[in-house]
Amino acid sequence: MFGDLFEEEPSLAPGLPCGPGKKAKPRDAEPPAPREVTHLSGIKNQGGTCYLNSLLQTLLFTPEFREALFSLGPEELGSLEDNNKPDAKVRIIPLQLQRLFAQLLLLDQQAASTTDLTDSFGWNSNEEVRQHDVQELNRILFSALETSLVGTSGHDLINRLYHGTVVNQIVCKECKNISERQEDFLDLTVAVKDVSGLEEALCNMYVEEEYFENDNLYRCGACNKLVEASKSAKLRKLPPFLTISLLRFNFDFEKCERYKETSCYTFPFRINLRPFCEQTELDDLEYMFDLFSVIIHKGGCYGGHYHVFIKDVDELGNWQLQEEGNKLTKDKIVKDNESGKENENPLTDLKEILSQEESKQIPVDQLGQKFLEKKGISWNKKYRKPFGPLRKYLQSHSQVFLFSPDGNKISLKENYHKLQFGSDSQGQDLQSPSQNNNVQWTSEKLSTRLKDDTSGSHWFDLNDSKVQPIKEKDIEKQFQGKESAYMLFYRKSRLKRPSEAHANPRYGIPEHLLNEMNAANAELQKRRAECDSADNNIDLHLHLASRYKFYNGALHPSLSRKESVLDLTIDKRKTLGDLRQSVFQLLEFWEGDLILSTAKSLPAGLHLYQTLNGDELTLDGIGLADGADIFVWNGKEVGGIDVLTGLDHEPVLLNVLHLAGYNEGGKGQHFTESQHIFPCSAELSTLCKALTSSRGIILMNSSGSDNEAKNWKVIPEENMKKTVKTTGLTDGSSILVLDSHDQSLVNVVDGNLTAFTHDISWLQVKNFCRLEAEERLVKITATIETVMSDIKITAIRELQLEEQLVNDICLRPINRNGKLLSPVPEDYTVKEAELKMGSLLGLCHGKAPTSTQLFLYFVIGNDLQAVPEMEIVVEETATVKECLNLMLEKSGLPGDSWHLRRIDWCYEAGEALSEENATLKELNVCNGDTLVITEGKLPPKGFLKVPIWWYEPLIYYGHQEPIQNQVNGVTCKIGALEVSSAGTSPTYIQTDMRLCYMGDIEISGEASLADLKIQAMTLPSFQEFSVPSPEFLRAWTVESKRPGKLLRNNQQQLNEYKLGGKAEICIEPLQKEESLSPSDLLLRVQMGIPGERDYYCSADLLWDISKECTALALRQRLAAHYSLPVDKIEIAKHFPEKFEWMPISSWTQQISKRKRKKKQESLQSAPYHLKDGDIIGVKNLLLDDSKDFSTMRDDIGKEKLRLLAVEKKKSRQAEHLQNDVFSEGKVAPKHRKPEVALSINVGVFR
């Protein structure tokens, strides 16, 4: 919501950054930055308190409020030190507000904190990051202050400064009786929508009258009858400080959403409120108010940011605009003038034309001609393309232009306001717009624009921590837009400030707060001095030559590091000479020259770089950073050994690998590793002489990875003159040294290493032969190039098995579940078999498949979990039929009525291998796949094997035995149901449907639906029924053991229905022939039994939805079906899966926010999703006023679902309880709290 609008500035003062290598200090250790050039203090944003900051700054710069608050001493308010005492009466809110105001006035910091104040409000951290409305805060804060100041001399502080009254009057036109009601206000809320400015809004509220006439009459208490009357409102009492809230946030009832009014809304710098007051005979200064604060809201109605423009009445700040910005502005103006660029603003042009007219109004038709005469170009040529036609432009700027009632004339709206706000010398009110249609512009001009005032008080923009000066004309920019004025604060013009308060922030502040602020400033200065010193101090590590030895190309301490290194803290602004003097003082004695050199710890040891020269240079100037290492020596030798310094002699630590001891066959070698140090300027020939014999070679790793042998390259003879540095060897680089007997591992042609130590792997082999040897595990060493046949032979030897078994056993990988996978071909290498180090293999009976064979698993039947898997090896060129015969032969199954299916991801029988003559390779059957032998022969290609079910609803009489359902001679016996209705009287109850399996049929996919029905009628189970023709049968697909999709066109081919290989069809008998069109929707409707929670038996209803599928259309269709009035029925859809009923009624059309188009009110979409076969319940309101559609069967079904859900919940809780044993340290997630209204907690002081 807030984005980065509330991001606070870092408290680190400008110009005091942490240097490189400087240890970070905690943020609370840094003193706050001092005030900037404005000499005014901002307020820190706690995350979402910009609205609070803006209001507090306004109250601070209201001197009368500030001084009245400061006049309340500790004897009335108590003391913050006594807040924790149980019997102390501390008014903490005004005390914290006093303290915050004193900090903002006197404390030398860029921004003050409101944490103590918000703590006194009782706000938590959530409240401090949640944004609220500043208008709401203004009222709540004033209420909290009034409550806190009860019983003190400041009890009427808010009432005295901000309280005003409005009187509402109703005048009877007959008896002239006046009925009035007085209302108090602390702020006035004025409309923004369709209003051009503040003066027009006040006019609408306090000048215009509302008339009660015609059908809208007023009952007069004096006349005791309905009469014509007028209603008006006036300001009766004006407070010294007038707060005005602009109603910028509105609600769009068409779009059902909030929005912010961003149109132009002007407000004056000085306003005369005489036209809006009840009493107008006082002096003009009593009605004049000056603007001194504007709270601005930036953003939309769901979030944004507040800041405030404030007039510095006491001139406490330093108002000085940036000269650089002024210069750029002047340069731009000069440049624009020189280029002769004209500001093309149609609004300015039209206002200029209208203002020059004597009558101040002009016919719209003549305005275009006037424009052509004044500007020398027509409106259409100059402005029509970007702004549209002239009349349309005038209508879109209704805040500026005013049309006459007939729409033919146009005038400036601001002149219209001037007429209303003017008054004659006797203070007589002018007529309202409705009473004076003949507009005459004779009143004195009242400017609504702000003008720059170069003398007196100045304006500042206080935006949380930032404070910057602005000009008065900048306020005009807040008239409109997303960043616009939200609250206005005016003060009476006659209020004068004492001369002692001018530019004196200490004026009126009590002595105890002055002393507290003086002490706080002293503490701030002390902390800033300490911080400045800490920021400039650096820690140096002095390494003494007497405590070091030089060997292996680097310096190494002869003692512990603590004894060899001295730490010195020094100001980096001091010179090198000062550092040298400090070192002399630190050392007890030193003989000879004292040379200081920069040093650095490397993996090889300590190395010296630059000698420090120039005692007059500062330490910061020569580049010494915090934590630098300095070596103190004589500049020549250490321990009698000359030491070379600089980058060219930097030591490099190399890892040197030697091959030693190799396995049988010479594939893969073990190695030994050692570390050697060489100067980076040393030649490679020097390395070769030091590490190898005369005939040895050196290899370096080109990629930096030791995992593969191909990355190792032999260093050729011509590169031996290169140095360690130019070759690219750095600290930690590895080189491989091969002596003469190891060079067989190198490919002489390209210089690559053919095998390397990381190629070595080991595998585990377990004995599954179960012969004389025990079932045990052995570990076999191999490389990625080792052939699986060699591993098998080695395993036989290790397990002490007979070598004659070599041709009768194989190696099979074992997965994590202990299952034996398909055997690995013996000609595969470890890499080709995709075996990893530590893989477990089983030594089993049987031959491994060759590269042209497939190892397959197969199971028999549909219950795959209960049947063990069997294994077989077949050629990949074998056909499906040959593979099936081999599997039947191995499993001993008789007959040929079987077929093969793949296994799907749910480990169930899936797709059938229907092409018997296709090879396994052509069907992408892979090594290790599992096939299922399923009973039944597959239909020929292009044919479907469809199970047929008999479907019909069950009908039941209340407490009698089940009846027989007879349909056109079709007789079917139906079993008893468990659920019956309550009561003793027999009733007809529609219960669930029944599916009876009739048999399977094989039918061509090109056959029609009528052919399927005819073939289904030939099944033996159908012989007991008498069905005249296929038109007396209705076909459905079966989905989840329920009728699914209705198959409606008897002549349509089955392939067009896309039934699939597992489709099942149910047949429903009908009482008459049926022919359904594509637009017919088949519903099962049932009428409720009056007074009981049951229904009469259902009836099929065909509903044509070609025109509309709405709730109203369905109600009309059902009302016609039952011969009832539309408004006397209630309907609902039944959801059998949930045992619930959803009433169907017309609902409000939803509007898409993106496309702004109305969605179709279709019952086939959410939430009803109406489809064929749905059950619709109907209630006859003439006989039954109950709107409860549920039955006892629904109650029983819901109870079963509830018990099932309880069982699932218990099982989940048991699982969670078990998991919690292993995750006790985890913190439970926090639930989001609901949003709460803004409030301030205040103690009781009455």
TrEMBL record:
Entry-linked SUPFAM superfamilies: Cysteine proteinases (SSF54001)
Protein's name in the database: Ubiquitin carboxyl-terminal hydrolase 40
Family: Belongs to the peptidase C19 family.
Region (Disordered): 1-40
Domain USP: 41-493
Top-rank taxon: Eukaryota
Biased composition (Acidic residues): 1-10
GO cellular component: cytosol; nucleus
The protein's Enzyme Commission number: 3.4.19.12
GO terms for biological process, alphabetical: protein deubiquitination; proteolysis
Gene giving rise to this polypeptide: USP40
Pfam families given in the database record: UBL_USP40, UCH
Organism: Alligator sinensis
One Gene Ontology molecular-function label: cysteine-type deubiquitinase activity
Keywords: Hydrolase, Protease, Thiol protease, Ubl conjugation pathway
Catalytic activity of the protein: Thiol-dependent hydrolysis of ester, thioester, amide, peptide and isopeptide bonds formed by the C-terminal Gly of ubiquitin (a 76-residue protein attached to proteins as an intracellular targeting signal)
